[in-house]
Amino acid sequence: MMNYFPDEVLEHVFDFVTSHRDRNAVSLVCKLWFRVERFSRQRVFIGNCYAISPERLVTRFPGVKALTLKGKPHFADFNLVPQDWGGYVQPWIEALARSRIGLEELRLKRMVVSDESLDVLSRSFTNFKSLVLVSCEGFTTDGLSAIAANCRFLRELDLQENEIEEKKNHWLGCFPDSCTSLVSLNFACLKEINLVALEKLVARNPNLKSLKLNRAVPLEALQRILMRAPQLVDLGTGSFVLDHDSDDSETYRKLKATILKCRSIRNLSGFLEVTPRCLPAIYPICFNLTYLNLSYAAGIHGSELIKLIRFCGKLQRLWILDYIGDKGLEVVASTCKDLQELRVFPSDFFGAGHAAVTETGLVAISTGCPKLNSLLYFCQQMTNAALIAVAKNCPNFIRFRLCILDPTKPDPVTMQPLDEGFGAIVQSSKRLRRLSLSGLLTDRVFLYIGMYAEQLEMLSIAFAGESDKGMVYVLNGCKKLRKLEIRDSPFGDMALLRDVGKYETMRSLWMSSCEVTLGACKTLAEKMPRLNVEIINENDQMEFGHEDSEKVEKMYLYRTLVGPRKDAPEFVWTLV
Amino acid sequence: MEKSIAFEKDLNLVATELRLGLPGTKESEKQTPSSIKSNKRVLPDMSEECGSKDNSNVSHVKKCDQEVAPPAKAQVVGWPPVRSYRKNCLKAKKMEVETTGMYVKVSMDGAPYLRKIDLKVYKGYPELLKALEDMFKFSVGKYSEREGYNGSEFVPTYEDKDGDWMLVGDVPWDMFISSCKRMRIMKGSEARGLGCAV
Which of A240, A244, A468, B171 has a Cα-to-Cα distance from B151 of 20 to 30 A? Predict the structure, then answer.
């Protein structure tokens, strides 16, 4: 029936299909739908930049306006992937520019971005509006100057946790006077900024809704900026410090008054440096906050932190350091009844690694906040009883990531592994999509995961399991698994080769410090030509003198339509 | 204060094994079975340096030990799984504190004049308390989270950023040195009141 409609009608219908997965499904129905869909597709998501080539993207989706690209494997965040592994955005930008694609939005995660790429980007797409860079590296503030100077309709420049080399230029001053379209600006990861240019920029961009400052912006400047931008919805403060010495009671008074006018702020972050006695200035906006990120606010702890939380009754998302302690989490539980997402980060990575939170805090949260669906919790210890209680109180987890600082720690009360606890979580949260395990774990936990975690898409395993059976349970049971990353666990060749077809249904598999041998990886690569099986061996001598029986230090495999990548460095050996 | 013999962490056990390679390589997986035998007690809110509970295996000098430990005892690569960016931010903050030196006044009840010490010089509570004991010729009692300092009429206290007088030893060392403005060694009945606080 649909074949009698003109293409425009189909296109119009497809306009209402927005999620990537749904559009992918639509394109598989028939050739006609494939054709209509591909010409009308504006937003493309590529979870692994090596799964496909820029040329194929451009050929299939000539109308693409918004592109998301991810590069390095997730474990690169934790220094498990060497420098120069790959993930370069340059070829993508070049291909898009060459094909005269009307790119408007680019979002990159864990990719290597050069100043040259940013320059080409800024010059090639006249309607370019939004650049979001998350955990990227390889560029300097010169690249930012190009973006500022050349993207005439820029709405969003969002730099999250990137490693950026800062030159002596004043990149912010490169925004021309005619730039009045900014809606979102985040430079919190930089160390310096030109304050004069910043204040002028804010003054001439009345549509600014999201502004995240860095630690070079002092309190006085914040006050002036907020005067100009009371319409802000999303604020990241920089330095929130008043010196004891100077007479800043005037500044503080003005700040308090200005903040009272900022009635739209719903998301608050920053406090990279803070004088706790200034915090009362923000109490008035706490009432309406839905997102509070104090995970970089190392200067706020104990009673000040708890006092602040007590004002935040409408919080839905809270990111915090473990300074909050179990007692503080009890306060969160009684105050933030709408809480959906909680992230508790460790404050001490060095030395003893004593986190101030335990299972007690988590149970308190689960009791007080039944809407909780997303958790990242770094803690000292965890018990099965606690996890079982949490599972019962909160059956709606989509993301559950637990990190016990001592990675093989058992339940300290019973000395048992945490299999039963995690088992309870996967059994109760039927919509669980992401899970990270830690603590002492046997193969049993994987049996539970395979049995119950039907919607699981991403699983992170470290120092867990006893035998190949564990990994096999997961590969067999989790039908929707897309990303599996394993480190320091006794899974080997039998598990790896058990179901080689499975890996084509997944985005990627990472295994490091496990029991897989070179021979098994070679076998896998031979059987599955549409997988890239990369061996990462930093101790040079790549292809020489290696026995098949040798264990592989790091293996990263991913499905791909374009074969081994040509930009692999010396220490990466792609098996064929 | 009591020292304990047993190591607290699995990583310590690994450090005593003969093995090649960095921590975090596959050899270190073998620690898994040994951790079942561990009977560590964990003391979440307490400073590890001053802890001593009934059947605790916490070594109060553990933190000092770890910082002078051989390289094999270093953290496992990539654990805890926190982005470098985040680690660097918090490390920078700690280093700020470390480079400027932190001289605080120390008074002792009954002493005619005050002293000044640089908190930065000490790695943890045991060293600090020993230095104070030497400086003022007294000895401090045994610390427990529940009862404070027992067994001496001297109790070390400090004034924090909020202006409150706190018992030395309750919070993690790093938190202490960043919030301590000055110290006072209390003596006598006033001390007993604080020392017995729950």
Answer: B171
